[in-house]
Specification:
Chains C, D: It is an enzyme of class 7 (translocase). The complex is a heterotetramer, with two copies of chain A (243 residues) and two copies of chain C (314 residues). Chain A is mainly α and 243 residues long. Helices cover 84% and strands 0% of the residues of chain A. The longest helix of chain A is centred in the first third of the chain and has 34 residues, at 38-71. With 314 residues, chain C is of the alpha+beta class. In chain C, strand 14 and strand 15 (275-282) form a beta hairpin. In chain C, helix 2 (88-98) crosses helix 3 and helix 3 crosses helix 4. The chains are: A mainly alpha (243), C alpha+beta (314). Chains A and B meet through helix 1, helix 3, helix 4, helix 5 and helix 7 of A and helix 1, helix 3, helix 4, helix 5 and helix 7 of B.
Chain lengths: 243, 243, 314, 314
Amino acid sequence: SFFTVFIVLSALLLLFLVLPLLNMILNPGNIQNAIFDSEVINSLLISLKAAGTATVIALYIGVPISYLLSRYHFFGKNVVEAIIDIPMAIPHAVIGIMILAFYYGTSIGRGFESIGFKIVDNFWGIVTVMLYVGLPYMVNSARDGFLMVDEELENVSRTLGASRAKTFFKISLPLIKNNIVSGSILTFARGISEVGAILVIAYFPKTAPVLILDRFNQYGLTASKPISVIMIILSILLFSVFR
Amino acid sequence: SFFTVFIVLSALLLLFLVLPLLNMILNPGNIQNAIFDSEVINSLLISLKAAGTATVIALYIGVPISYLLSRYHFFGKNVVEAIIDIPMAIPHAVIGIMILAFYYGTSIGRGFESIGFKIVDNFWGIVTVMLYVGLPYMVNSARDGFLMVDEELENVSRTLGASRAKTFFKISLPLIKNNIVSGSILTFARGISEVGAILVIAYFPKTAPVLILDRFNQYGLTASKPISVIMIILSILLFSVFR
Amino acid sequence: MLKLENVSKSWKEFKLSNISLEMDKNYCILLGPSGAGKSVIIQCITGIIKPDSGKIYFNGEDITNLPPERRNFGYVPQNYALFPNMSVYKNIAYGMKIRGRSKLEIDKKVLDISEFLGITRILNRKPLTLSGGEQQRTAIARALVLDPKILLLDEPTAALDTSIKENVISELKKIGEIVPVVHITHDFVEARTLGNQIAILINGELNDFGDSEIFKTPKNEKIAKFLGYNLVKIENKNYAVAPEETVVKRPNEVQNPIEQHYFGKVESIVDFGYYRKLNVKIDEYSVKCITKGTNNLKIGEDVKVFYKRKISLN
Amino acid sequence: MLKLENVSKSWKEFKLSNISLEMDKNYCILLGPSGAGKSVIIQCITGIIKPDSGKIYFNGEDITNLPPERRNFGYVPQNYALFPNMSVYKNIAYGMKIRGRSKLEIDKKVLDISEFLGITRILNRKPLTLSGGEQQRTAIARALVLDPKILLLDEPTAALDTSIKENVISELKKIGEIVPVVHITHDFVEARTLGNQIAILINGELNDFGDSEIFKTPKNEKIAKFLGYNLVKIENKNYAVAPEETVVKRPNEVQNPIEQHYFGKVESIVDFGYYRKLNVKIDEYSVKCITKGTNNLKIGEDVKVFYKRKISLN
């Protein structure tokens, strides 16, 4: 019947998604080796540090615009919203090419270079890429939060004597704490997951995903499995917190 | 004041996101050459065909489960929802390793191989990866749609003489048309954007993102720009339809 | 006609306990406060949800396990649930199309029922563009066009402007003449005006069942309280006194000092225009009284209260 | 005290045109149907939105451009807008904390106001766990604790159960004795019971302003219609007749045949218990009449209708 067909198709989908993961976790290869492999540890540290840095920056520049977008209507608002979605629309490898072309091809980019801000094969290049791909997640999470905060709360706060800024920090921001946390986790997760754009901008210092590809290309599947399992565990931990 | 700071930070964010894109579109390099380059055309066709195939499959196996999830409460529902989010949680390169390890390392995988279903360096490998990373988008879009369809509509339809299956096809499905379309676009876009997992499973036949990385590594930035611009235009078109 | 036998059901936060009820072929009202489980009963009757135990019979036939699509009961939910992607015409025609009726037959019946309900001129509109009253008529038309064995209405006036409520009540009276109706509501006015049979449901239990007399003589304290009676204790016996069956006077206005009366003080007044509602403090009880709108008592005045009728609650 | 001078404002779908109004230090009601722009006026008074043109004065001082945080007007929105992450105590204390008052002073004032409003025992609860009535008291306490110059209430009973509405009205009367109130509503009962000054607002325009006499003598057709009067034409002159100022009798019951009367037919009856509302068709007009609940006329009966009072509407 109708129901049976639906349940069978659903089971198929679930198996397709979960079996590769289960197989990986049950046959992780030699994890011990990986844990004592300084290249693995370094790549993980670089991934975490870069993603963390990008997340903090995203917080500071992403929350203000999400507040403005949730509270005000202005001419060109949909253009602004479209700009924020750019990193989600464009293939990752292309994003790398775009950022590199901007850095090398424009006076602004060369200006950054001349003051010593390097991105090619540099930690800050990784941060730049992670920030670029992660910002939409931060902005969208925070905006969804602000949209759920009843504007009357802010109105009442002002009639009770709080200025606009005080109202933002005492009422609006505390109320979207959960959205800020989940926006940060998504931005962070998006960052450590990125590989396409990083391959273009900064093959070195190697992030964990780059190292996985590197090991796979040089030594094959078995060599890349243990690092992959570590990444899986890390990602699943992050997502459990998110939920 | 409070406002000024917010506007300045917002402007900064917008410039950061839009300038690389503008620079790329204004300095696309030699596009004409790219259009007459059969390797470029082939890679684009492979990307589109694989993403299209993955989207159609996602539609058939993704919509049923999203209906069940939106209508029924059952034991273990949150486990099912977590499984659906796996492809979003795990870094792309790792997904490639996972799928490959499953294909080579389990009897199910070898079963597929023995009946001639190949994934390594094969079109169907690309489809498999694209389906894997795209499914959550399809399921989540369709589920959001079904959740917005008032259950009373289905109840009334049944009191008016329509069976459960008729009600699904005559009432519920037509009402979430828009969600199905946007879920399909997101799945398709996610597919053509994927590169990390494809690098592991199927370097050949080259998809457009793989070709971009390939050209970049072999001939440098200038050689990879025209294909990138084509991908940008394609992605923006897709996203405009989506919005 | 419709018979519920020991129907019990837990559903979300609601719980029906052992409802037994036999409705005749007329206008039946299920009256109860919100959260009493009224909607669960109606959903059990439609067949959308199955009772945990108990049986439902229609004209003697056990329909407990019959799926909704095979009952032909008209159902109009509280929010009307019009199909938003279909025109009013297509909404009304939906059930007949499902049954595979001919284009001609559908057209004729849809026009007939639309004329009866006065919605002919909105047949091409989409539900979202309609007023609440028009949406309701469409939903009723969609049910009636199939000549249902019974029409089930879930709080039909709850989503409407108060201004058109009274018209709708009169319309429903007309509809009740062509099809048996089961109508659930928390509104006493609807129940009084429409109900040939009235069942009172409180906390998932059936508390009384009868004709509109049940408003006049509440059977027990729970019902009396629900219906807005004052519960008073006189010489250690409990009585229910309707607010409109009290008389409040200034002490010096009392003509007949033999009548039994109680001294009190006016605590609050709410002015409804045609009448006023007073709370009068008598001993430590607060007694609700209804007086004419022309009465000019003030808050804080001492008064004498008479009960024109007391209903004894054993 | 509070004076609006030619205030105009377009805001979302609402539009205020040229409102001038001077409110004294007492209980003022702004009465109007939903969508009349009542909320826009109150938001202009709080300072949350600025009028497009016109001035607002408080005790003679022009406050049109003063930001809300410097007005000290208490504001209680329709949904109460309690801060959901703070306890009742912290909600009430919020304004004093912002002002940097001492812990001791805050504690004392919060307890005082909580006692006055009877919410001492819920001070540690979170808003989401409160009933509608408790939420409202908390919102009022949060405003009153700052000794506001005026208290602004936006539809204070709209979000409440009908069962506690009457109590709330009595409470508001008490509050009105300690602080001047501007209260907007669409509810005639609130307006009649509470209003010392009543302004009638229809379609963003001020239609009448005065004391509760304005219910008795509608100034023009628009107001009469809004207040529920029958508009009747007698000898080519227009009159407003209140439904409660009609008498409906069977032709054979009429005692005094000299009185002016009209023949009609009962079209519909709605039974409110204490009274009944009839629609009587007279010529082609439908006239709303209120009769006693004990009246036993039936739909379709021929009747004679008398008007006890007619208000001439030039």
